[in-house]
Amino acid sequence: MRPNIVVSSIDMERLETLLDSLPSAQSAVKHALLEELARAELAEPADMPPDVVTMNSRVRFALDQPAEEFTLTLAYPKDMQPGDERISVLTPVGNALLGLASGDSIDWTRPDGASFNLTVLDVLYQPERAGELHR
Q1: Which of 53, 56, 60, 67 satisfies CB 3.0 to 4.6 Å to 121 for a cystine?
Q2: How many CA atoms lie within 13 A of 114 on its CB side?
């Protein structure tokens, strides 16, 4: 069973626009993110719990396969820069991170069929918590 997730209304709107723009070749990515968004609880940015991973949040998380810890910023594809410690929301790990809270774990399946467990250890920065409600 997957943990509950919370997505801000601004992120939901932007992610739906992003998904509408994706080519059909990315249907697996689109489907995975649509599934997550469909089960999300919506919150206004000002009401976002401070420990939830939103877009542009800096997150410390652990993966079990291979066992490793990361600190990355969840980003839109357009904001990705080589070597800048960001992860796209369109990647399996980025999909899994969206909407989770500190302490949450989720089992996720990659496009190749392999699965992994992701645990959010800490939300180091969240735009909503920093007062950036209209980013």
Answers
A1: 60
A2: 8
pLDDT, tens digit, 9 for 90 and up, residues 22-60: 887 677 878 889 998 999 999 999 999 999 999 999 999
pTM assigned to the model: 0.92
Report helix, strand and coil shares of the chain as percent, to nearest 5: 30, 30, 40
- Tell whether the model's pLDDT for residue 91 goes beyond 80: yes
CB 76 within 8 A of CB 18: yes
d(Cα 36, Cα 29) in Å, to the nearest integer? 11
Please give the order of strands across the beta sheet that includes 58-64: 86-88, 67-75, 58-64, 115-125, 105-109
| Strand pairing class (86-88; 105-109) | unpaired
